[in-house]
Specification:
The structure is a single chain. The protein is of the alpha/beta class. It has 2 domains: about 200 residues, Rossmann fold (3-Layer(aba) Sandwich), CATH 3.40.50.2000; about 180 residues, Rossmann fold. Helix content is about 40%, strand content about 20%. The chain has 15 helices and 14 strands. Strands 3-4-2-1-5-6-7-8 form an 8-stranded mixed beta sheet, with helices on both faces. The two termini are about 30 Å apart. The C terminus is likely disordered.
């Protein structure tokens, strides 16, 4: 049985993208290990759905560039020291390194000397991430250094995974050979998404007189929940029975609660708090419309959030910011777009969707149709095909269709 190792500077349990890939490999017959940050349960080593997870205790306090650099360096050194020991035991055929940071691809250099293929999954585009987070100009020394390091990193990898067409195009323009890259989209694993789904007791039966708009995810500034509350406050009097439910936790929770109070909609904005992942499908089934009011900037314009396909597979109309990556895949007939950072435009979109039941019925049908080529069953086949092309099949893996390295499944 061939072995594959994943490296990710995150808590593995909550990184849905890495989990999808790792569990797909386990199901295909590979042995899979993960090197990651320690979860809240504090276990150094544990098994989750057939994946062996090894962890290091390293917090994610973040804040300044210096703090990021410290955390990246500490994790890099741990992986650099740990990987040769892992290779002596496991002899990995491939190592899937997940950014950030890009230079993490160099941590398993010894494993490469010992024969492992290195895959760099570029979760994020690093220069744009820091330009967005710290307001750095593209001409700054830091950004130029990050672009240089990005290129060195993807040149060093045996293969590169990107998460959507616009990002791949951006990286190709920065020197990434298209033939060396594969697109594996952020798509919901429907089998896992609906697994053990149950209705939370706290939710209770839905009042069919209500019109529920819902967001689920982290409560941070970039996701624009304040914009959603401002928009709802503008039109809530014209939307009888309408409520805005916000699921999740994060640094903006108190500010959002205060904003709802100030705008006079506290009784109609429900800050639910953190929800167990197994309960998410049940919560989504109770809403009428999903709302993703993501802000736009040089980084977020390339965003393709996991929350979007979750709404789509649940058959929900989605009101979403008109961002570059999302607009690349979904037409105006599939999603209810509004101009980012514009509460007035979002409020009119909310009101229009509320007043038009026929449109609410049509949009999800078209969205599912346009999502079909992006679904996880195809992305999984693409990823497994890439692994097989690089290292060969696991002992009990069945033959998969051949894969074109640009990320398109060959017919």
């Amino acid at each position: 049985m061939k072995s594959v190792c994943f490296i990710v500077q995150m808590v593995y349990d909550v990184d849905v993208r890495v989990r999808r890939k790792a569990e797909a490999l386990v199901a295909a017959g590979y042995s899979v290990d993960v090197l990651a940050l320690r979860a809240a349960h504090g276990k150094k080593s544990y098994s989750l759905n057939g994946v062996t997870v090894e962890t290091v205790s390293l917090g994610k306090k973040r804040g300044s560039l210096a703090r990021y650099l410290f955390e990246y360096s500490a994790f890099f050194l741990w992986v650099f020291v740990r990987m040769p020991l892992q290779m002596l035991r496991r002899r990995y055929a491939a190592i899937d390194v997940n950014t950030l940071p890009d230079f993490l691809i160099f941590a398993p250099v010894v494993a490469r000397w010992m024969g492992a293929k290195l895959i760099l999954d570029m979760h994020e585009i690093t220069p744009e991430f820091y330009m967005s987070k710290y307001g750095l100009p593209e001409t700054s020394l830091w950004v130029r250094l990050m672009k240089c390091l990005e290129k060195i990193s993807f040149n060093f990898a045996d293969h590169v995974i990107t998460i959507n067409d616009p990002i791949q195009h951006l990286l190709v323009n920065r020197g990434l050979p298209r033939s060396k890259s594969t697109i594996v989209m952020n798509a919901v694993d429907e089998a896992r998404f609906f697994e053990k789904s149950n209705l939370p007791a706290a939710l209770g039966p839905l009042d069919r007189k209500k019109f529920v708009m819902m967001y689920h995810g982290t409560l941070t500034h970039i996701y624009g929940l304040d914009i959603a509350i401002e928009a709802f406050a503008l039109v809530h009097k014209e939307m009888e029975g309408a409520e805005l439910w916000i699921l999740g936790s994060g640094p903006e929770k108190d500010a959002l609660s205060n904003l709802a109070q100030e705008r006079g909609v506290a009784s109609k904005v429900r800050l639910v708090g953190q929800v167990e992942s197994a309960e998410i499908p049940s919560w989504l089934s109770e809403c009428d419309v999903g709302v993703l009011p993501i802000r736009r900037d040089i980084f977020l314009d390339f965003a393709f959030p996991n929350k979007l396909p979750e709404f789509i597979v649940m058959g929900k109309t989605v009101i979403v910011s008109r961002l570059k990556a999302i607009r690349h895949y979904f037409s105006e007939d599939a999603l209810a777009y509004f101009e980012p950072d514009n509460p007035a435009n979002l409020s009119q979109r909310m009101l229009g969707i509320y007043r038009d039941p026929q449109l609410r019925a049509q949009l999800p049908i078209k969205a599912k149709d346009e999502y079909a080529p992006l679904c996880w069953s195809l992305m999984k086949q693409r990823y497994l095909g890439l692994i097989k092309d690089l290292v060969g099949s696991a002992e009990r893996v069945s033959e998969e269709p051949s894969i074109v390295r640009t990320g398109v499944v060959a017919k």
